[in-house]
Design a protein that fits this description.
By secondary structure, this protein is of the alpha+beta class. The chain has helices spanning 2-19, 37-42, 58-65, 92-103, 123-133, 154-162, 173-179, 221-231, 246-257, 287-292, 297-304; strands at residues 25-27, 34-36, 72-73, 112-113, 116-119, 138-139, 142-143, 168-171, 185-188, 198-201, 211-214, 236-240, 263-267. It has 3 domains: 1-56, no CATH class; 116-267, Rossmann fold (3-Layer(aba) Sandwich); 276-306, no CATH class. The protein has 11 helices and 13 strands. Strand 6 and strand 7 form a beta hairpin. It binds zinc ion (2 copies). One zinc ion (ZN) is lined by residues 119-121, 148-149.
Length: 306
């Protein structure tokens, strides 16, 4: 090992620096050691000797940062080309032209967006936006998020983030669905509210840009159930049919995260005399109290249809 470290490596360093430095070895900008190119690629441009993070190009970074490399490069506002009229042995504009031809990009800086975007709306903002628009597509849980922040301009978004405005991360379902398989479905072994059973194709009208995480709470209901089910190896989800429609967005999330979907068995709810859901306030209606009042297990099964 010593022989390699003390003798061979410096020799190789000396040899390679001039001949094939660009292709086989690269000099670490942190410690100065020569690092084998393939090791550097495997370590995502982090020096195996000193842990220094070496530069990584914008396009390469996007490909690694976004799941499956799926992203959209955002247009940057155009800037003045040559405001100070620099000149050495060439005009600055000439140099720009050369570099642009070499990189096939107009700017060294790139910004991209994947499937998530920051939403700065409060509940009040969302209600006001829906009122202003006159109507909003209705999801199963009421009006859907109208997408106010989906198309915020880059400077506007950067400005709000820089000012520390609180935001939630929303899933762009249009993009998520486009990135997923052509037709997503789940298997229903029970029945939805309208008796839906068997293979259920994901319906676009039941999807909206849900919140996946917000400040101080780094998850959300939909994200948590999908990840927890997968982590716990759940293969059959049995739950009330008030969550049947939510299965559509949850199935899309599973596709985004590459998770194996469980099967579903939705069942009827036991409703009060007016057909409303019981809430936690209605302490009288628990399984235990039903059993105490002489309702048999079979009757309860019949009530919820399982
Ligand atoms: Zn290093
Ligand atoms: Zn918003």
């Amino acid at each position: 090992m010593n022989w390699i470290a003390n003798f061979v490596r410096p020799r190789i360093k000396g040899l390679m620096r001039s001949a094939t430095a660009d292709t086989l070895w690269r000099k670490c900008t942190g410690c100065g050691e020569m690092v084998f190119h393939r090791d550097l690629v495997a370590a995502q441009n982090v020096c195996p000797q000193c842990g220094h993070h070496m530069r990584i190009g914008a396009k390469e970074r996007f490909a690694k940062l976004f799941d499956d490399g799926a992203h959209e490069v955002l247009p940057y506002p155009e800037v003045s080309q040559d405001p100070l009229r620099f000149r050495d042995d060439k005009r600055y504009s000439e140099r720009l032209k050369e570099y642009r031809a070499r990189t096939t990009q107009t700017d060294a800086l790139l910004a991209a967006r994947g499937l998530l975007y920051p939403c700065f709306c409060t509940r009040k903002d969302i209600a006001a936006e829906i009122a202003r628009a006159g109507s909003a597509p209705h999801g199963p849980d009421g009006p859907s998020y109208p997408g106010t922040c989906r198309d915020l301009s880059l400077p506007e978004r950067d400005d709000r983030l820089a000012r520390g405005a609180p935001y939630a991360l929303r899933l762009d379902v249009g993009k998520a669905k486009a990135a997923a398989a052509a037709s997503l479905s789940f298997e229903e072994e029970g029945a939805g509210p309208l008796g839906e059973t068997g293979t259920q194709i994901i319906r676009a009208d039941l999807l909206s840009d849900i919140v996946l995480a917000r400040k101080g709470l780094q998850t959300s209901y939909h994200l948590a159930v999908v990840v927890d089910d997968a982590l716990q190896g759940v293969t059959l989800v049995t739950r009330g049919n008030d969550l049947f429609h939510a299965t559509h967005i949850q199935r899309l999330l599973q596709a985004c995260l590459g998770l194996e979907p469980p099967r579903y068995a939705h069942h009827r709810l036991i409703l009060d005399a007016k057909g409303r859901k019981f809430s936690k306030r209605d302490t009288a209606v628990t399984l235990a109290s039903l059993r105490q009042n002489g309702v048999s297990v079979d009757e309860i099964r019949r009530l919820i249809g399982i």
